[in-house]
Amino acid sequence: MSGTSKPGQRVTPAGAPGGMQLFDRDGSRKYLTVAERARFLRAAEQAPREARTLCMTLAWSGCRLSEALALTADRVDLAGGVLVFATLKKRQDGIYRAVPVPPSLLEALDLVHGIREAQRRRGRGSAVRLWPWSRMTGWRAVHAVMVAASLSGPAASPKGLRHAFGVAAVSSGIPLNMVQKWLGHAQLSTTAIYADAVGAEEQDIARKMWG
C-alpha cells in the first residue's frame, strides 16, 4: 500500500483489502456512532415488545441477526449475566460464545419472553425460540425502528449495530482479543478493523494515548 493519499482520500489499513470495511465504496459509514445507537435504543422503547427486545439484543451483544433469531430460552443465563450464542459463521457446528449484557436487557428478555418460566420446564427452554421469525421479519422489525429514529444509509441496519458494538468496545478500551471472542470472529485481524474507527470514536482512543 502506498504511504501517500490524495486530500480527503481514506487510507485503508494494511491487510484489510478485500476484507471487512467500516465504510462502503462511496465513503459512507457502515456503523452507528454512540449517539446514533442511543437514539436507536430510545426509538426501540416505543416499538412492539418483541421488536424492542430484538433491537436491544442486537445493540448490546453485537450478535448477527441470524444468531439473535436462533437464540433459545435456555441460552439466556440470567444468573451469569450473559447470552450464549451459537456462532453461525464458523465452519463447524456446536461453537458457542458467551457475551456479557446489561441487566436491563436480561430483565426485558425475562419480562417479554418469560425466560424464568421457560427454564423451569423440561429441557430448560431449549425448544423455545425467543423470536420465532424469519430473517426478513426480523430485519423489517429493526428497519422500522431505524426509520423511527431517523437513521438511514448503510449504518441503519442490523450489521450497522454489530459494527457499532465493535467500535464502541474498542473505544472503551476493551482488548481486541475479548472483542473478537464476543463477536465470534475466527481471526483477530477481522476484529482489528474496529481499531480503525474514525470521528469521535477515534478521538476517544487518541485521548487515552495522550494521557
UniProtKB/TrEMBL annotation:
Name used for this protein in its record: Integrase
Keyword DNA-binding included in the entry's annotation: yes
One Pfam family in the UniProt entry: Phage_integrase
Molecular-function annotations in GO: DNA binding
Superkingdom assignment: Bacteria
Entry's Gene Ontology BP terms: DNA integration; DNA recombination
Annotated segments matching region Disordered: 1-24
Keyword DNA-binding assigned: yes
Alphabetical list of CDD domains matching this protein: DNA_BRE_C (cd00397)
Entry keyword set: DNA integration, DNA recombination, DNA-binding
Family classification: Belongs to the 'phage' integrase family.
